[in-house]
Amino acid sequence: MLNRRHLRIKVFQAIYSYLRGAKNDMGIGEKELITSVNRIHELFVFHVSVFTELHRFAEKTIEERKKKQLPTKEDLNPNLRFVDNELLKSLTVSESLQESIEKYKISWIDNEDIIQKLYKQIEDSKAFARYMNAEEVDTDAQKSFVLKLYREFVADNDVLQDLFEDRSIHWIDDHYFVCGYVVKFFKGFSTKFSDNFRVPSLFKDLEDDTEFFKTLYRKTLLNNKEYEAIIMEKAKNWDVDRIAIVDFILMKMAVCELVKITSIPIKVTLNEYIELSKTYSTPKSRMFINGVLDKIVPELKEKGEIKKIGRGLMN
Length: 315
Prior knowledge:
This protein is mainly α. The protein folds into two domains: 4-193, no CATH class; 223-302, NusB-like (N-utilizing Substance Protein B Homolog, Chain A, Orthogonal Bundle). Helices cover 68% and strands 0% of the residues. It contains 15 helices and no strands. It has helices at residues 4-19, 26-66, 73-76, 86-93, 95-103, 112-123, 126-133, 139-154, 158-167, 175-187, 206-222, 224-234, 245-260, 266-280, 285-302. The longest helix is centred in the N-terminal third of the chain and has 41 residues, at 26-66. The protein is elongated and about 85 Å long. The two termini are 27 Å apart. The relative contact order is 0.12.
């Protein structure tokens, strides 16, 4: 589920917090970094659980309408296309999802009104009407409908956003990553998974990924002054006070990754930190960081400080 770029972002945020004095204890900072990373999976499950609640609420609504004192023809013979949606049904009965919901103690009991209002908005929408009245809906059409609901009613819902943020301040920066992964998760649904549609794990390789982000955090901070000197040697025309702290952190992390992490190709490391600069720093930072790192790499190679294990990793 998590990719290395997102792990780099989490490390960058933790290092920024440490160097700005928000967390001046490296051990505490590392614990908070681990918590921040691990809770991304919880946010993902929280997002997905919205649909299990909508599905249950729809089933409950159908039964309540049948029991009305004066039910209409539609109440007695409801259109079941929403509750029969294969993706929604699979999510609701998924043991894997239910286990994750219980693990993270996710409950909507105190927020049933949110689900009720959300379902009413969906039920009144044109997308809902088109789906419910279409002549036929195959599995792809059912997935497309759920994805449309997610994008239009859930992903950027202000009420849900407030609910998520009240639960964890770590989630503000993880929102768009999680949204993208929910979309990917839904797109991956197939009827062959209908009996056991499993929630993805947080890491592709738990041990390897954990070692990656812990090493990157620890070694960057432990070698902070050394890496700063390396950078300043190649940025002679720049006063240290004129270099943005974000640029400094990204370059220090890049140097750390080049020297301390043997399994990642040099080119990948350089490209990743240049890309991160586009999001987190100034418009001119990309060229500055690229220029400095291009000068640093040959010198580190010459000194034998870059040791990569595997064919092609030195390029």
